[in-house]
Prior knowledge:
Elements: E1 2-5, E2 9-14, E3 19-25, E4 47-48, E5 59-62, E6 65-68, E7 81-85, E8 89-95, H1 98-101, E9 108-117, E10 120-129, E11 135-137, E12 139-141, E13 144-146, E14 158-162, E15 168-174, E16 178-186, E17 194-196, E18 205-208, E19 215-219, E20 225-230, E21 235-239, E22 248-255, E23 274-276, E24 281-290
Antiparallel strand pairs: 1-2, 2-3, 4-12, 5-6, 7-8, 8-9, 9-10, 10-24, 11-23, 12-22, 13-22, 14-17, 14-19, 15-16, 18-21, 19-20, 20-24, 21-22
Amino acid sequence: MEYLSNGILEIEISPLGAELQRIRRVTAPWEYLWQGDAAYWNRRSPILFPNVGKVWNSQVIVDGQPCELHQHGFARDMPFKKIIDEDRHMAFLLRSNETTHEFWPFDFELRIDYTLLRNTITVGWSLTNCDTRTMPFQIGAHPGFNYPHYSADDDLHGYLSFNVSDALVSTAIATGGYAGKETFEVPLPEDGLLPLTNDTFACDTIVDATGRINRITLHDKNAKPLVTICHSMPITALWSPCNGRAPFVCIEPWHGRCDDAGFEGEFLRRPFIEQVAPGQTWNTNYEMIIE
């Protein structure tokens, strides 16, 4: 396990998947990040690459050839190499290899950076195409955040607020975890606080792909802000298992989403695909502000 602190925040990162494992304030070491439990979800903050969500029949087509890919890709299960270890900055690198080639027929370097500045964690993603072909891909974050004083018997676990005041517009998730053809609205109350209850996620996942949402704050039961996610990605997904009857909620900025039900076309034709040319590097980042 790798440790990083700036005197205000302290975080832990696993080289496996370059996955964030803990987020705490130095002066009040309550654990912000979900700690994993197979009864609900045994991960904490995986990186989703080269696909986000499920692919139809666990297979994609790349340049006419079938490739086996599973939900959220393979990067989350691959060992990364630590390449930078500074006072407030740490970086990890995954290079394509024989194992990645079993799933993905491209040469690449995926770099994950963690930087601490005051009460903010910046997570940077850099993808370099080392291949001779333009590489399509998707990438996303999947951090889970604990509810303080959670009880399954409570009607309310917390709230979410957003940089928008009108209703969220979600893609419907069909049976099996694929995108349906319909959308539905999630209205926001006048105060802008979306209650998180045992029924909030009866829809499975809220997937707003309108590109309007770039700031999401998790509040406790008393509406006190806990953590804010800031990003510039086209999709914001919100999820908590068991219809929401779990001790945490995931706030997920995505470049990409699951396949449409029945999709069997080229990977390049998946919704919200990014591309990087040979020899070029694509990058972005998002922030977690610990309130």
